[in-house]
Amino acid sequence: MSTPQLPSQAPGYWPGTAPAAGGFVSPVPMRKATLADAVLAEWTKIRSVRSTMWTLGVMVALIVGVGMLIAVAVQGSSPAETNTASPLALGFIGVLLATICVITLGVLTISSEYGTGLIRTTLTACPSRSRVLTAKAVVFSLLTLVITLVSTLAVAAVHSSVLGSRSTYEPTGGDWLRATVGVSLFMALLGLLSLAVGALVRHSAGAITIMLGVVLLPMILALFMMMDSLRGVRDALLQYSIPAELAVLYGTASGTGAGPTGWEPVWIMAGLAAVGLAGAYAALARRDA
Amino acid sequence: MIEAVGLTKRYGAKTAVHNLSFQVRPGAVTGFLGPNGSGKSTTMRMILGLDMPTSGRVTIGGHPYHKLPNAPRQVGALLDAKAVHGGRSARMHLLSLAQLAGIPARRVDEVLGVVGLQDVARKRSKGFSLGMGQRLGIAAALLGDPAVLLFDEPVNGLDPEGILWVRNLMKRLAAEGRTVFVSSHLMSEMALTADHLIVIGRGQLLADMSVKDFISANSADFARVRAPEPESRDKLTAALVEAGAQVLPEPDGALRVTGLTLPRISDIAHDADIRLWELSPHQASLEEAYMRMTQTAVDYRSTADRRHGFQAPPPGLPPTGPVPPNWGEAYPALPGEQPNPYTTQRDSKDVR
């Protein structure tokens, strides 16, 4: 049991006794808080809530679990099914499912503070609003990056060793980098975009709905654009939708040949996240908390 | 020291706080009183730089909150006891706040001990009662061991033991030389806790004075005198007024008499050959004075709903009509009462 800071019998302690001259001076050592303190605080916040840990667990389970299921399924099929596709591309489905976890967590990282009113306590403890948002962005994006990287590396290793013999395609170093580091960067940036939308909308359900719409709707809309006059719009929607960009990183882009290639999806997502975060910083600085 | 100058906050057409100027001094508990929706919380948020004033300014030690060097070590605040993530334990909640403000982690256990939550520190705050939530909020305010403390309705939801504890804590913090600013809508609580009072209604300053001054300005001794019949009552009124008293009829037929001592009233009644059914000393309560002060500044007031019988008169009493719009006038300003210099402000009707 620790001693309370308030001394129990010091002069000026009880009502009616004269207060110390010159006002109150705290005996607790004084130190200016920095961004590192804010990052540490965010890390404490993220790891001290069960729902965060569950969502992260589900994310790992989806990437690794679905990856393994696909490996088993493909291996069980007849050996004649050799093809020319990269074995790494099979990791795509698990990561696509995991985007939902990243979106949810990214939004909740900030919107849950608005939902409970905790944001006011946070901003009282740290009046620099940009520091609070930066700390959240740093902690959440690094966490997503590391977890996706570990998961995708594991899945890619399994897929290439177990299924490599069934494909005539030999993945290059660039393919490996894109399917692991590239995909992880893409997911971390998608998380940052979600965080920015959460900060702008300040409402969990609203922000998650918006982000799911951003991910899913372009492809669905494109499905129903069968008229010739809309071909340009349809192709753009298909090629630049988030699932399609993710597929590009796995080397399984739709056959038209146009649209993003190589590392471009990462740069596109980086641009989106930067715009979103710029808006979030501006809104946070200007609005009443 | 907190200083507000011409502080105004508008949300669209609604003015939440209007031209508020006051000072909160160190070494005393300053009560911030007002009915619900009178702008207390908005003012607190502006002090903490969470809401930007539409005009005017508020400073702490001469700086606006966001320019205050090492603000979380200078100022601590309890704004809302429910403003915690229910899934996080009390300890982790405080630890994250301490880390954010660069406060040593050992302070977390210290403040948990101060508010008496050490046994439930590792429990998720979802299961906390409102009183425990208030204690957790107070712990968060004390984390930085700050010289300026703001508490928004800290006794809401506390049991009598908890209320006493908060009252003593406030006094103790002020006695240590800190600035303590406590909001409440309960006059009775503030009369016991605060040294100084700032009263607002509809976002405007109604009074800024010490509790002692407030009491002497707003409570006056009077005698309640009851005579049996209306005729003798009128006769007594005339006799008392002649003797120099001020007499006010009360709704139930009694008389409020000021300016004469009780024995003198009795003598006058005896000389006029009037029997008395009651002659009792009274003091107008602070609650009454506060109600009178804020009556025109209450935003949310119930109206009579007679259909549901909530206000049906008990049998044997004459039926009451709907509550008149000026029901507060049942307690008009007392004759012996010093006029309150601040109450004139409430007559300005520009903030409805």
TrEMBL record, chain A:
Q: State the Pfam families in the record.
A: ABC2_membrane_2
Q: Does the keyword Membrane apply?
A: yes
What GO CC annotations are associated with the protein? plasma membrane
Indicate yes or no for the key word Transferase.
no
Single GO molecular function: ABC-type transporter activity
**Which species is this record about?**
Streptomyces morookaense (Streptoverticillium morookaense)
Q: What is the protein's name according to its record?
A: ABC transporter permease subunit
Transmembrane stretches, start-end:
53-76, 88-110, 137-159, 179-201, 208-227, 266-284
**Keywords from the named record:** Membrane, Transmembrane, Transmembrane helix
UniProtKB/TrEMBL annotation, chain B:
Q: Where is the ABC transporter domain?
A: 2-227
- Molecular function GO terms recorded: ATP binding; ATP hydrolysis activity
The segments labelled Disordered in the record are 306-352
Q: Where is the composition biased (Pro residues)?
A: 312-325
Residue span of the signal peptide, if any? Answer: none
Top-rank taxon, per record: Bacteria
Annotated keywords: ATP-binding, Nucleotide-binding, Transport
Asked if the record carries the keyword Transport, the reply is: yes
What's this protein's family per the entry?
Belongs to the ABC transporter superfamily.
Q: What name does this protein carry?
A: ABC transporter ATP-binding protein
Q: Which organism is it from?
A: Streptomyces morookaense
Q: What is the lineage of its organism?
A: Bacteria, Bacillati, Actinomycetota, Actinomycetes, Kitasatosporales
